[in-house]
Amino acid sequence: MKGVYAVDDVRAAEAALMAELPEGALMQRAAQALAVHCGLSLERVYGAHVVLLVGRGNNGADALFAGARLAARGARVTALLLDPEHAHADGLVALDRAGGRTTGADPAAITGADLVVDGIVGIGGRGGLRGAAIELAAAAADVLTIAVDVPSGVDADTGWVGDDAIHADVTVSFGALKPGLVVGPGADLAGEVRLVDIGLGPHLPPARTQLLEANDVRALLPHPDAADDKYTRGVVGVAAGSEQYAGAGVLATGAAVHGGAGMVRYVGTAPDQIRARYPEVIVHPEARPQDVRVQAWVVGPGLGTDDTAMSLLSDVLRTDLPVIVDADAITLVARSPGLVRGRSAPTVLTPHDREFARIADRPTADRLASVRRAAHDLGATVLLKGNATVIAAPDGVAYINATGTPWLATAGSGDVLSGLIGSLLAAGLPAPLAAAAGAYVHGVAGQRAGAHGPSSATDVLAELRGAMRSITAG
Questions:
Q1: Are 255 and 179 in the same domain?
Q2: Is the N or C terminus of the chain more exposed, i.e. has fewer CB atoms within 10 Å?
Q3: 3-state SS of 254-310?
Q4: What is the 3-state secondary structure (H, E, C) of 51-103?
Q5: CB-based contact 461:446 (threshold 8 Å)
Q6: CB neighbours of residue 353 within 10 Å
Q7: Is the pLDDT of residue 474 over 80?
Q8: pLDDT tens digits along 224-234
Q9: 192 forms bridges with which residues in the sheet?
Q10: How far, in Å, CA of 425 to CA of 417, rounded?
Q11: Rounded to 5 degrees, what are φ and ψ at 59?
């Protein structure tokens, strides 16, 4: 997993490292890394037309020093200075000595550029672009663009984006990932994020937010061995579906079946549909949840919100087993949050934004902080769906999943996710990691399902096994 750090933590680490290094050495490390990645992004450096968008801060200085290195390799480098009086003096000298040139913030100078380097605003920037920077961003829209540390106009701490911002193809992040690169609209504007090591690691605190990678999920997914049987692999109960929304129960149950559980038991009001689709599932049409032997529960998809549904949800939440609460069950929990707050066993809630607003305030621009508050208040793991899914545990530890795809914005997709997470809970994964790993696999399945065009939740379900196979195979 890669740690994701708030700007204040990064600033403190930079200050501690700079105290150990000669003056300017850290900036030169960053500039060298930036120049390398600019070179990797260009077909050739010699003769390439590179335009630097230079603000008054350290990002502008990094761009100038990197531009000097590119100019020394034969690139035609032009720096557009938004604030000439406050541009980094040594960076200007370096660029001039290498044969680069400087001019004002003229958008026309971007015409014909092979590469734009965005050094307008750094990680301390707040609010969208202003003044001449707006015109520069518009002129650079169709040009290969590399952002220095964070795209200008993106809040590095939250991912909030103003009315105008740089849309980068690549963002070179120095020393540590920032939340704004992996969460919220900022994640979409950052393009491909390339993290470079400049020596901050020993000075950063333990990461309380982490970005999942394939290797992490590979290690988390259950791998049965010769000693396992259907019970040791995990038995998951599914309380989902209804006469009107039987399909939701089918999707959640199918995901539990294909998610690795050794056995799936169904309790609900759509038994005939479950039997017809999944004969391996044991159906308990009249049983109460406390009388069904399972190791985790999935409750909510297509359940309805009437008294019968509330009674079933209450029975599930009264067990001392891990429970994932989704869809209609979230609406019911909003009416009686004490059902979740009072639990001693792990609980996972998986809302989208509108459902989240029912159990907490609407998600703010700082989605990570919003999910942490809700998790702490409810005493549960909360997974807020989105292109970048955010998962927070009650103690504030958080995970970010970046495998999401817009193709997952389809009816029933969340039912597949809940069934998958339920199977991982039944296998014994801690609730936050089960939710995070489930989101990762679900995202990969969504990518596979949408590879050839519009996809349905049934398509996503069909890709679960292939997604897990691709992850475990490395």
A1: no
A2: C
A3: HHHHHCCCCEEEECCCCHHHHHHHCCCCEECCCCCHHHCCCCEEEECCCCCCCHHHH
A4: EEEECCCHHHHHHHHHHHHHHHCCCEEEEEECCHHHCCHHHHHHHHHCCCEEE
A5: no
A6: 13
A7: no
A8: 888 888 999 99
A9: 170
A10: 12
A11: -65, -40
Give the range of the structural domain holding residue 152, as residue numbers without chain letter.
Answer: 2-207
Q: Is the pLDDT of residue 342 over 90?
A: no
179 and 204 Cβ atoms separated by less than 8 Å: no
Q: Are strands 101-104 and 76-81 parallel, antiparallel or unpaired?
A: parallel
Q: What is the pLDDT of residues 118-158, one digit of tens each?
A: 999 989 888 789 999 999 999 999 999 999 999 999 999 99
Q: Is the Cβ–Cβ distance between 58 and 113 less than 8 Å?
A: no
* SS3 call for 173: strand
Q: Are residues 188 and 228 in the same domain?
A: no
Predicted model pTM: 0.95
Answer with the one of 191, 207, 223 that is the final residue of a domain.
207
Which residues sit opposite 323 in a β-bridge? 297, 347
Q: Which string of b and e fits 63-80 if b means at least 16 CB within 10 Å? A: bbbbbbbbbbbebbbbbb
Domain boundary among 190, 207, 224: 207
> 3-class SS at 11?
helix
Instruction: Tell me the residue ranges of DSSP E strands in 105-150.
Output: 115-119, 145-148
pLDDT tens digits, residue range 235-249? 999 999 998 999 999
CB 166 within 8 A of CB 152: yes
Strand partners, 265: 237, 282
**What is residue 430's three-state secondary structure?**
coil
- Which CATH number do you get for residue 284? 3.40.1190.20
Residue 175 has pLDDT above 80, yes or no: yes
Residue 280 exposed, middle or buried by CB count within 10 Å (0-12, 13-18, 19+) = exposed
Helix, strand, or coil here: 184? helix
Give percent of the chain with pLDDT exceeding 70.
100
Q: What is the largest CA-CA distance in the chain?
A: 83
Section 196-206 average pLDDT: 97
Q: Examine the domain organization and report whether 279 and 297 are in the same domain.
A: yes
Residue entry with tokens 């996503």: 460
The pair of structure tokens assigned to 326 is 């989704």
Q: What is the mean pLDDT of residues 265-294?
A: 94
Output DSSP code: residue 157: T
Q: Are residues 274 and 197 in the same domain?
A: no
Both 195 and 267 in a single domain?
no
